[in-house]
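Q: What does the assembled structure look like for these inputs?
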Amino acid sequence: MAVMSQYQPPVKDIAFLLEHVVGYPDIAALPGFEHADLDTVVGILEECGDFMAKVVAPTNRAGDEEGARWQPDGSVVTPTGFKEAYQQYVDAGWGSVPLPEEFGGGGFPRTIGLIIQEMMMSANMAFSLCPLLTQGAIEALLHYGNDELKQRYLPKMVTGEWAGTMNLTEPQAGSDVGALTTKAVPRGDGTYAISGQKIYITFGDHDLSEQIVHLVLARTPGAPEGTRGISCFIVPKFLVNQDGSLGDRNPVHTVSIEHKMGIHGSPTCVLSYEEATGYLIGEENKGMRIMFVMMNSARLSVGTQGLAVAELAYQQSLEYAKERRQGRAIGATEDSPIIDFPDVRRMLMTQKASIAALRALMLLNASYVDHSLHEPDEDARKRADEIVGLLTPICKSFGTDLGNELTSLALQIHGGMGYIEETGVAQHVRDVRIAAIYEGTNGIQAADLVGRKLGVRGGASVREFLATMREVDGQLADAGEQFASMRAELKTQLDALEQATMWIFQNGMSDPNAALAGSSPYLRMWGLCTGAWLLARAALAGQATGDPEVAETQLVLARFFAEQILPQCSGLLPAVTAGARDLFALDASQL
Amino acid sequence: MRIVVLVKQVPDTSDVRKLDLNTGLLDRDAGEPIVDEINERGLEAALRYKDDNKGTEVVVLSMGPENAIKSIRKALSMGADSGVHIVDDSLAGADALVTSLAISKALERTGYDLVVAGNESTDGNGGIVPAMISERLGIPLLGFLVNMEITEAQVSGERQGDDGTANVHAGLPAIVTVTERFDYARFPNFKGIMTAKRKPVDTVTLAELGVDAAEVSSLDRTEVISAVERPARTAGTKIDDDGTAAATLVEYLATNRLV
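A:
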């Protein structure tokens, strides 16, 4: 039995969050977003969701089954349907929506761009990586490229006619990007000769676009060791003539593509640069700064992948649970659909409530990105930027950890059928698995949270955010008895989070290893608390709409999450405060 | 060349559709309102002609409640140039006679060289409004086309029946109806959605069309005598094979007119 995945874009859920939970009307009121009012945005998202469901989603299975293929001539062919879907994507202009109007974009907020990404990732995560990487390259050029580079490359990248890639990793330089050895030798004419080998290059070569613009990290002769000696270059697949037409093939070759666990439709390339012509972005040795610009943005997008694939898997498992009949539920007189069994309900509710929490968290982060860029007041921009810094590792790790857990639950609901590839739900488990690994592993995110983000303004930044989360307490108290249990639980768990935070403040400086030892469970405490906090806000907002169905849905989701998922938070406190003793008590030979 | 595409807003065909048993009318709040797909196909045919022939103007015309503006905007975002929206409370529950009268008047007001309609809507499935418009306006009707070619002076196409294919043509002005053999419509693109907000939509009442309420009420109107719920599905018939299953099956199929 083949259950075709029929993706239903959750535009109503998204519109509710935008209007009532993450304050989208405030973003639309920022200077420059006059054209992006809520009604317009929802209209656009409806059409975009329809496009993703009807054009992109049908390519998801073929992408997994066929995979991208490396040809003997060194070219890469994408799976059936990708090319046509990509052309339609370019024609529809969906990639251009959040990009600056100056280069042909729609000038919409990042928040809206992230929602478009979410729907595209649900429709086909592998496919979505091509536009995602292109956007990363665009952002680097926008912030650090000179006018000539911008004029030459951006307009066609904004439309999607040209794709982009990010080239960081080398065999010996993964999480430690500073160890890279690709060389960039100045030629004296302003260009550089780039030589070296890059691995894990997503959509490093393909047949979706006529041109691919590689962003490459490399070292100039005599550059300092480590991350301080890295520069960032543009290396186009084809050199671009003065008139903008494509010229000679630049010597960057695809040596092979990887055979992966998931996202088969996305070609993961080994690229060999053999004195390829490159153009410096920004200044020499400032490449890492450029990477950091993109990092927050890309990490939020990858966190959203966890949400997006979980949403798709949830929809599929819900349909299955309604149709599959097995045995009789308590009190039933005929065979019951498995959705009538409490344990299956638990799995469905866990998915639905967690997805709602994740989406609110991703959109909250994105909304602060918009505030950080567009608030007229500098202090407001700075504060928003701090919050983005704090929330980004949480979004990336918690989003993708839950991506793994929730897709696994969706598979579990399918029983034995879930383990059969034909059912299609296994693909989601395999596809989403990479998201916890790439764009900085989840462990790196936890280290970033503990090592970099907690210390911002001597800890004041994080304390202010905790205080903001506490503000919901008063509103919950006023909202009535139905909100009492979630209020009590939220208070208990925020206390635990604060206790963990204090412990890290007190011990982190003297014993950094102890703080790092508990960093992953600590990050999860944050994910649980922020998720429950946002769901509580959604429940309050749902009640305020006066629509009884919305009010009930939001209340039940928030209450279920607060009563039955959030309590994991205080259970993690011992792991956060245990220090590193037992992690290192056995030496490597004893492990 | 001005092509007017008639667009009907209908409840989403993939949603559950409900009949109000008291009025015998469709419960329009039960499903998400969308542009009838057959009209999207007609619009696509008109837009393709416009793509190749500059100076072509595509107007979408819809009769429906306030929220039918959503369907007009959708058509505008796909590439139509302007819209006409006939809104009038007295039109609620209008039958084909009234509908064809209102639309004909609006067409006269807007002006047209070619009118493109769907062969029948997915909600009412009447399929007679285009023929009535043809009669009211005194223009030829090419109905149930499977393809269409438009030139400056005429429109032609094929109509397929059980016994063969008819090649039909008519001089302009004319009205055509398209079938599901026409291509799916294009997706609205982002720029199209943004520009659609600025495209003109002419909202008109019956009075503005020169139709007075007395004329409408004097028309013979379709009356709904009764409405009943579709009977619930019954269990299937099982035939046990005691050696006569083949004969029983044939008899079953024959009596139920399934063969």
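The mean pLDDT of chain B is 90.
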